[in-house]
Amino acid sequence: MATRKEVADLAGVSEATVSRVLNGVGPIRESTRDRVLDAAERLGYHLNAVASSFARGRSGNLGVVLPHVPKVHLFSTYYFSEILSGIGQTVHERGYGLLLLFRNPAEEYDYVSLFRTRRIDAAVILGASSLPAEVAGIRKAAEEGLPCCVMDQHFPEFSIGKIAADHVEGAYRAVRHLLGKGYRSIGFLNGAPQYSNSADRLTGYRKALQEAGIEPDDSLVYPGNYSWTSGNAAAERVHADFDRLDALFVANDRMAIGLMKGLRDRGCALPDDLAIAAYDDSDAARMSEPPLTSVRVPFYEMGRLAAEKVLDQATKTPTGDAEPFSEQLTPTLVIRQSCGERKGESL
């Protein structure tokens, strides 16, 4: 591989001049520029992307800011691993570095300083919630017009870049499938209320029931927090309501698998005793017993798109009147054995 010194020797200039030409820094004579570019092309010299970024006043890094939750293995969760894989693909293609940063959800995070100190050029915020400290930090980033976006969280009180899935539609499709198999008394095990996608799933669940002429019963909506443990703990309440339940929609696969374990421990046969549809279509959904019907969310594509959008934003000159981007991807339903056999006429 050619070096900068070899380019300088061939062009008859200093290494510093080569650096200025290739980084586009400072005034350079056109004839000098042409000699350097010609030498670089002849030698096949490729400028280091990170070094180039520093020369232009950039870090060359995309920051991904995640919540630090003690004893929770974020990278083992399907949601985070898939989104990070998508982000990583775009970062690799664009020649950027990836900087992982952790925030305490109970404390206001200083996004602005990350940009002012040139640690990052753009940011993707994962696992954001409606907790006051989280909102305060993200609001300041939005007010500064920084090249950043949030994933799967709505902040109607201010404008910031957003990439999300249509969780209203995803939940609606799952519940419609259960209704179509003849189930009428359908409960819902939801995630934590500080995440807007929990509200979105609840909206889709209620919409499907109401369209079928069924009034939603709030006593059949069970609380969870998207963890296996919360799903397992919910098994006691769900089992106690078996005389009122035909089926259950669960807001993610991890909770559904924890729930199924808790129900089997109580002697239940699934799906004969309870039909279940879940959400995410993780690898675990395919391997559970029975395999889970689940809403497939394009997390990988969401990660790729988020990184593309914020890096594009970081390299453009701010106009002051541009609206933050907002993209919403549509989930699909993957049907497996956990919903059991048809119980009645299709709706």
Q: Give the N-terminus to C-terminus distance in angstroms.
A: 66 Å
The H-and-E topology, N to C, reads as HHHHEHEHEHEEHEHEHEHEHEHEE
Q: Determine the strand fraction and express it as a percent band.
A: 15-25%
Oligomer: single chain
Shape: elongated
Low-confidence stretches: none
What does this entry look like structurally?
This protein has 347 residues and is α/β, with parallel strands linked by helices. It folds into two domains: 61-165 and 300-331, Response regulator (Rossmann fold), CATH 3.40.50; 167-297 and 333-339, Response regulator (Rossmann fold, 3-Layer(aba) Sandwich), CATH 3.40.50. 44% of the residues lie in helices and 16% in strands. The protein has 13 helices and twelve strands. The chain has helices at 4-11, 15-23, 30-43, 49-55, 78-94, 111-116, 132-143, 167-180, 196-211, 228-240, 253-265, 283-287, 299-315, and strands spanning 61-67, 97-103, 122-125, 148-151, 161-165, 186-189, 221-222, 247-250, 275-280, 293-296, 326-329, 332-334. α2 crosses α3 (30-43), α8 (167-180) runs parallel beside α9 (196-211) and α10 (228-240) crosses α11.
Please tag this protein with its features.
alpha/beta, 347 residues, single chain, 6-stranded mixed β-sheet, Rossmann fold
